Amino acid sequence: MHRTKRTTLRSIGILVAGLALSITAFAQQFPVKPVTLLVPYPAGGLSDFIARTVNTSLSKNLGQPVIVENVGGGSGSIAAQRLLNSPSDGHLIFQGSPNELILAPLANAAIKFKSEDFRLVQMISTAHIAFLVRKDLPVNDVDGFIAYARKMAKEGKSVTYASVGPGSFYHLLGEHMSKVTDTPMVHVPYRGAAPAEQDLISGNVDMFLAPYGKKYDSLHKQGKLKVLAMLNHERIESVKEYPAISESKVLKDFTFNIWTGYFVKTDTPEHVVRALHKAITETLNDPVVRSSMESNSQLMPQSLPLSAVGKAYAEGTAQFRAIAKSINLQPQ
């Protein structure tokens, strides 16, 4: 009887241990349901294009559907805050950039989160910045635009420039351009790139410094807007028909680009972050994804090991905070 009792207790112990291992193993599984990819701007813009280019391959690499959801507004902060209000389980991913996570909190007093509340899992792409103006603006190059802007300012009719929201990178670029050229310009914020470009095409705004996509080449050739330059140090093969900003006299040092990455909350479990990092890295190496991104003039970054991603994000945060400080950006 005593031996039977011992055997029973041993069996129970084995069962409990097995159950504990099963629970642990289940807890380590990721993903266990569809993953939502939050895009912080309306459908139709470059951010939406990137998400819908990678989601099919990412779904395959994760073994679960990846659903793209567009949540615009607040310079991207509405989507970012939604991530922070969700469980830290990796089933909600934020497709973001310095726009939403570094600059928006510096410009909008209503935004309470910090860039440090987010963890970068992997960079996705780097975008050229195009210098776009409305089709009927009487200029054909960057120096001509600055001369026109100065002339209009003297007449009390300052030129307008679009952005994807107050405190966004494109807002800062416009303010920085106004400062370095000593030329008054009026900021016109939008909820995303798509409505901004629609108003540019309609002639309701004069200029838009925007992440370049091939559609702008088509719109330029159709005479619906003008691409004056790319904010690059030199002409890039994929957009070689357009001048680099360095070819201008007034703004030859006005060179910028912007990167996009996938983020989770900082307290997301490490095994989830590792799984996401692996799947995203595999997606970036997918020839179909790379071809589609590069055909739209997106620069594919070198995939970083997880150990280097955090450092890259910290360096980017410091760089963009410095730009904000240089124009005395104040939260409104």
Automatic annotation (TrEMBL):
Protein name: Tripartite tricarboxylate transporter substrate binding protein
Signal is among the record's keywords: yes
Family the UniProt entry places it in: Belongs to the UPF0065 (bug) family.
UniProt entry keywords in alphabetical sequence: Signal
Stored CDD domains: PBP2_Bug_TTT
Pfam family, one: TctC
InterPro entries: BUG, Bug_dom1
Endpoints of the signal sequence: 1-27
